[in-house]
Amino acid sequence: MQSQSQTNNVRIDIDPENAEQGLAQLVMTVIELLRQIVERHAIRRVEGGNLTDEQIEDLGVALMNLEEKMEELKNIFGLEAEDLNIDLGPLGNLLR
Q: Model's pTM, two decimal places?
């Protein structure tokens, strides 16, 4: 059994490069999750028939622009789509 003084002397060596990449991956995962939620909500609104043709067009353009920006950011951080899909164990994957 370790004494209290031995336990307090344990240090965690964190590589700043890995920490930055991990943080970028986490932030991008949250953004992708939100993007998918917004996209599903937009599809429900379109299917609900409550939008004008102009609103549908604007919504489509906005979603395409958002997806394009996500691809750009994934390239900047060296991430692939599967890097953003966190495995939640028995619950399955986070993203569809």
A: 0.71
